[in-house]
Predict the structure.
Amino acid sequence: MQLNDQHIQHTNNNKLKNHNENYTFLAHKLSKSDHNVSEIISKLSQFQVAIPSWALGAGGTRFGRFSYHGEPSNLEQKIEDIGIIHALTQTAGAVSLHIPWDASNDYNAIKELATSLDIRFDAVNSNTFQDQEGAKESYKYGSLSNTSRAVREQAIRHNIDVIDIGNKLGSKSLTVWLADGSSFPGQNNYQTALQHTQDSLKSIYKHLPSDWNMLIEYKPYEPNFYSTVIQDWGTSFMLANECGEKALSLVDLGHHLPNSNIEQIVSTLMLKGKLGGFHFNDSKYGDDDLTVGSIKPYALFLIFNELVYGIKNNPQNPELSWMIDASHNIKDPLEDLIQSLEAIQEAYAKALLIDQDSLRAAQLINDVVQCQEILQSAYRTDVRPLIERARLNSGGALSPIDAYRSLDIRNELIKERGKHTVATGL
Ligand code: RM4
Ligand code: MN
Ligand code: MN
């Protein structure tokens, strides 16, 4: 199913008057306090977040999986789903593939389809956390860190194959997330596991095309429950430094122990020019992969404050790869992704409203109360009219969720694909 402009404009008609009133009021207020409203809107329009191909079907837990009707059953259909989200939100102009879940026989056709929907290929993800059909070696006890050279070599080869696939599609980075670690004390020699991982990453790094980056993700636990080889940002940063300039750290919001100060991690990595990518989601307990902004929207805003600061002040940090990394156990995945995109835009817009000069001045004289006032005054602004205007300018829907529902998109997908399709992924 493909949406056209008319479909979307039609859903906007009865919302336009209300939007114009709200927008005029807010734009006037912001201009009076010296904000450059059109610059904010153009930044919001430019901000594009990749959708991972595995987020378009129903996710599951280890207790089961409840299928979502009309799920995409191949890569073409996944890209079509992203096309729908992008047409409505104008914020999802990229896809992040996971190999081998998204392996295809015809990458030219895949690229053509994506281009026709205005979607580019963001980072490609390797998968050495599951055994692949017909594979000679098993990753049960780790991949890049495994004690067996043959297993490590197979995992290195896989990452190189993923780079080759990404190259055909126009991707510019490889994301490596390892499930490697141990579930019981004594199971692994920490030093050997780390050394093997380092050496394996270096071998992969040698195969990176010159204009590519390698993004190294970290995670403190799960699926291993006692230790993870790349457990935190410090380990990822150290490995990236050892590999070289094109190796960078990737922050996934769900990959921290409770109460970690993620905004500070972001800030440190950007200062050192080593933040390469970002995975959005939200969580209450662990790597819950919940809708962005559904639990801790203020923390997200504080993180965006550091991102905005870093983008402006840290030319040493390369452009970031943005991706939503979420799972959908009970919601319609497309609706959930739309909600996540909205929350990201909201946090970004609010961070853009922070009066950075006054904040710096208040920090210099240690006016702690004023610092908090400045942050919270931006946070308390209802920025939704700005986001609506950014979407409207690019041809999107004023309310993507309402449009998705009034256009009855899920039922259209069920008609096309049937009820019992299953998407590849987790
Ligand atoms: C991991 C990690 C990776 C993602 C997999 C599916 O927890 O977040 O980024 O590729 O899940
Ligand atoms: Mn992730
Ligand atoms: Mn994760």
Remarks:
- The chain has a mean pLDDT of 96.
- The pocket of manganese (II) ion (ligand 3) is lined by residues 252, 254-255, 287, 325 (CB under 6 Å).
- DSSP finds 16 helices and eleven strands in the chain.
